[in-house]
């Protein structure tokens, strides 16, 4: 019997909830987070990392979980991420700004759309699609934004696929190998995710600082 974590923001909550269907549940969350606006509230990096750990072990914090197949995650994860993002792109292309024409709530903030648009304009469409995979909230809203701003669906698909494979499989494999080699790996889930986020943000911060320096240089 699983003892579920107290908050839906915890990856253990969802993995325990899905039980024997944990792999399917992980793929469903990946799809929702990348394709549906409400998916922004679902766990992303932490879920992928923890699911990767559960391909190597079957116990976290003294609680037994259903062990997950690594090949299923490595193949199914990117597919779910690609399909979800393509759906988001299609919705953005079909409905445009109307898709974001709603009041702020717990699952939607206009500032999140503005943040995604900043990434899109600052890094360019192709680079932004890949980078967004590693940025919570942005990875949900950038896909429909790309469709709304007219990024070609075929060009989006190419960079969507590249970003999906890098994001999903790097986190799955990292979780798997750490789960197989580090005793009591459950103690390091949150610190591990924090390190991943910091490492993914460093290139973005560098690009932003570079852009600000260039802007200042032109203004002098």
TrEMBL record:
Q: What residue stretches are annotated with the VTT domain?
A: 42-175
Bilayer topology annotation: Multi-pass membrane protein
- Provide the alphabetized UniProt keywords: Cell membrane, Membrane, Transmembrane, Transmembrane helix
Segments spanning the bilayer are 13-31, 36-56, 68-92, 156-176, 188-205
Localization, UniProt = Cell membrane
**What is the similarity comment for this entry?**
Belongs to the DedA family.
Q: What is this protein called?
A: DedA family protein
**Originating species:** Actinocorallia aurantiaca
Lineage of producing organism: Bacteria, Bacillati, Actinomycetota, Actinomycetes, Streptosporangiales
